[in-house]
Amino acid sequence: MKRAELVFIPAPGIGHLVSKIEFAKQLLDQDNRFSITVLVIKSTYGTNMDTYIHSLVASESRIKLILLPHIDPPPQELFLSELSEIKMKRAELVFIPAPGIGHLVSKIEFAKQLLDQDNRFSITVLVIKSTYGTNMDAYIHSLVASESRIKLILLPHIDPPPQELFLRSVEKYVADLIESHKTHVKETIINQVLPNSSSIPLAGLVVDMFCTAMIDVAHELGVPSYVFFTSSAAFLGFMFYLPKRYDQLGTEFRESDHESDIPSYVNPVPTSVLPSFVFNKEDIEIPPVYTLGPLIKLKSQTDFSFGGINQAQHEKIMKWLDDQPQSSVVLLCFGSMGSFGASQLKEIALGLEQSGHRR
């Protein structure tokens, strides 16, 4: 019967040795044509462990132990130094939120949660200012005033695309706005982030769902990119469903369809409410998804004038919410740039009336 010899070399450490020997025993139980020799690195065991080591294979004649000659290990100081370096090793992330205060606030809240989970990160947030205006600088900086590990960099102002484009196609307007900032983003990272990479390496770019053009910048810099998706999991599932639907059915959505079955939604969705881009085929690949949220800034720090309310009005609203029965209030958030026509607003109002919830 043809046989084969295997040589096992476990790492120093009794746990590694025991698990390797147990694996050898299982392998021999499966196929008795093997014989196995285990080479034992003794440096970390000490001579008083020889008897125990041999006892591990005392009942198994097909496993042979060879204790390698003792070699003095590196100095203990080196081990402690390396261990300390591993514990303190840090990484830099660059966050790129889309223009819009809701996107900026949620991205910063996510950054704070991430830092609470692992304080080895430091985070730089690149702020596209085009839609904020200079009067927002103080408010933007106040968002991270209490968090020294988050650094804000306001990108140079670039004139946004013409308003006519926004009225004609919001998607195209946002895409052109983000595209126009790619050069500034890359230069800012090279000049203000990478100079620190010798001590804190750049680990990746976290880009907003509307800033996917910045993935090109990540590729050029040779770092990974992650898309921060600020909509719901149901809508993300819907977007993932688009290429699958085309592969299975060979058709896009048609505006003439009354409603459509979408796996991530409980009920059929009226086709009339779907975003315009779904009526054109998009060839997309689905990257890994990491769930998080909700990300809500519940405690406003200073500027109550932002959003058109003062502190008294803010407290009145919060008191009214606190006084309502649990799970009785529906909040509709359309984002900082959300807008609807009169007919859509009427349908939203009708749906709210029929929901039986406060709003």
Describe what this molecule looks like in 3D.
- The chain has 359 residues and is of the alpha/beta class.
- Among the domains are: 4-67; 90-230, Glycogen Phosphorylase B (Rossmann fold, 3-Layer(aba) Sandwich), CATH 3.40.50.2000; 325-359, no CATH class.
- It has helices at residues 14-30, 50-55, 76-88, 101-117, 137-142, 163-168, 170-179, 182-193, 215-221, 233-249, 311-323, 342-355, and strands at residues 4-8, 34-40, 63-67, 91-96, 121-127, 150-154, 202-208, 225-228, 259-260, 269-270.
- The strands form three sheets. A five-stranded parallel beta sheet has the order 6-5-4-7-8, sandwiched between helices.
Biggest sheet strand order reads 6-5-4-7-8
Task: State mean pLDDT (0 to 100 scale).
Answer: 79
Q: Give the CATH H-level superfamily of the domain at 90-230.
A: Glycogen Phosphorylase B
* Count of β-strands: 10
Task: Name a few traits of the molecule.
359 residues; alpha/beta; Rossmann fold; 3-stranded parallel beta sheet; 12 helices; UDP-glycosyltransf_plant; transferase; Udp-glycosyltransferase 71k2; UDP-glucosyltransferase activity
